[in-house]
UniProtKB/TrEMBL annotation:
It comes from the Eukaryota. GO terms for biological process: regulation of transcription by RNA polymerase II. Component of the Mediator complex, a coactivator involved in the regulated transcription of nearly all RNA polymerase II-dependent genes. Mediator functions as a bridge to convey information from gene-specific regulatory proteins to the basal RNA polymerase II transcription machinery. Mediator is recruited to promoters by direct interactions with regulatory proteins and serves as a scaffold for the assembly of a functional preinitiation complex with RNA polymerase II and the general transcription factors. Its main location: nucleus. One of its GO terms (molecular function) is transcription coregulator activity. It comes from Ogataea polymorpha. The gene is MED17. The keyword Nucleus applies. The keyword Nucleus applies. This is Mediator of RNA polymerase II transcription subunit 17.
Amino acid sequence: MVVDKDNEFLDFAPLLDQDSALEYSNEDEKLPLPQLLAKIIAQRGSFLDISEDRLKEEIENEQLSEDTAPNQGDVEMEGEPLLTREQLRSYEEFKKVKQEIVNSVHSALNESSLSLDFVSLLISCVRPAAGSSSMSPHLKQHIKIGSLSSDKVDPPEDTEKLQFDTSKVGRGWKLESLERAAANLKSSSLRLKEEVEKEKNFWSGMVEVLKSNEVITSMNMKNSKEVCVKYGYGDAGSTYYDKGIGILKKDTTTGDLFFENSAPAKEEKQDKVVNVRIYEKNGETVNLIGESNVEQRLHSFKEKKGVINDIAKARFFLFEEELFYQLLREAATLISLQVSAEEDKIVIDLHDEIIEITEVPPEEVHAPADLPSNERADLIQIYLRLMLYAEHKRNLDQRNIPPLALDTEAQSAPQTSLLSLIRPIIVYNRHKRTLKSVRDVLESIILNHFENDRTKTKEHLAEHLNIINHCNEPSARSKDPFARVSTPPASILELATNSLIVRVKLTSLFASAYSVMNLTLQNQTGSTVLDVTLNDVRELEDCLNWAIRNYDSI
C-alpha cells in the first residue's frame, strides 16, 4: 500500500489539536489577569454585552454539546473506514519527529545567535556601546570588544564599458585642465603685458630724470630701500637742516614715475615764496612805491607737468624756504640797525624808505601794480638770492681747505661769515646817504662863499669837485664778483680851490654801519695843512668853515 507522504501527518491532526487545546487551556490558566481579560474581550466582546441570563444559556448549551459529542463520534467512527497499521503512526514516532523539529528550531536559533554576535562584534569596532548592548555574555567574556573590523572592497570590474567610461572621464578632466591652463596663460600674458607697460613707463621716467642731470641715490625708508633724488643744495655748500631728498615712486595703476617729498616734518609744510616791497616815508604816512614780480617766476611751474617739473618746483620752494630762514637769522642780530623781524615778515627801516621782505603762498601771488620802484624791488630780490648762492659757495670753498696739522701750536681763528644778506643793503644805503650829506656840506660852503649865487656854485662844483665811489675795491673783483659786497664801502671827494685842496675820504664800517671821515687840506704847494678824522657831518662842516676863514678867498 502506498503512503501519501504529503498527508503523513494529517492523521495526527486530531491528536495535535487535542494537545493544542490542552496547551491553550493550560496557558489561559497561567496567563496574568490583564492579559486574560484582554483575550476574553477579544473573543467575546465587551463585558457590557454580557448578562447573567446569557451566561446561563451558554453553560446549558455547552453541557448539551458535551452529552451529544460522544454519540456523534461513534457515528462518525462507524461511517469511516478502518485505517491500516502502516498508515498509522505511533505516538513515539510522532514524538521523534517533533523532537527533530524542535532540534532544527534550536539549531536555527543558535545560528541566528552566532550571526547576531558576529554582527555585534563588527559594530563594536565602530560603535562600542551599540555593539556591546546586543552581544551575548559568553562572547563578551571571551572576546574583547572592538577586536573585529571590516572594510568594503569592491571587486574591480575589468570591462570594456568601465574602461570606456574611465577614458571619457579622463579626457573630460584633461580637456578641462587644458581649458583652465589656457585661461591662466591668457590672463598671465595680459597681466605680464600690463606689468611690462608699467615698467616701461617707470624706466622712461627714470631715464628722463637722469638726462636732466639729477642726482639719483638710494636710501632706507621704513625698512625698505627706495630710489631717491637729491634736489637740495647740500652738495653746493648749504647748511640748511632740510637736505632736500625726495622719493621717486611708481604709480601702481599706470606705472608712471612721480616725485614725493620725503622730508620729515611735524606738521605739513606750505610752499611759500619770498617777496620784496618798498615803501616811501613822508612823515608818518607810508606809501607803496615798488613790489617785486613773483608771478613770473611761478608761471613756468604752472605751464609744465611731469616729474622733472615736480623736482624743479620742490628745489625752487626749498631755496625760498632757506632764503627766508637765513634772512630771519640775520635780522635777529640787526635790531640796532632798525631791522625788525616777525614770523613771516622782515622790515628794514632806511630813514627815508622801508624795505619789507615777506613770505607769500603761491595762491596769494598776483601781478604787481605799475609802480615806479618795481624794477628796484626786483633787483633787491635778485640780490638776496645771489647773496645766498655766494654764501653756499663760500661754505663749499671752506670745505676744500685742508685742515691744520695736529702738532701746530697756532690755532685757526673762528670761522665767521664773510658774506651777509641784509647788512650790505643797510651799510651801502647809509654810505650813500652820508656821501650825499658830505657833498651838500661842500656845496653849502661854496654857496656861502659866492654869496648864495647858485649858478657860480654849480659851475665851480662841476669843474673842481671830483667824487670817486668805492675807491677801495680789491683787485680780486675779476675773480670774485662779490668782492665789493664783502668789502666795506669807501669813497673820496676832492674839491680844488684857489688856496686849498679839500680831500674827504668816507669809509663805512660793516659792524656798526657808521661812517668815518678823513679830512685832508693841502695848499697850492702840495703840503698838508690839516689831516683829521671825524665821525660826524656837522664836525666836518665846522672844520671846513674854520679852515676856509683862515685862508684867502677862493
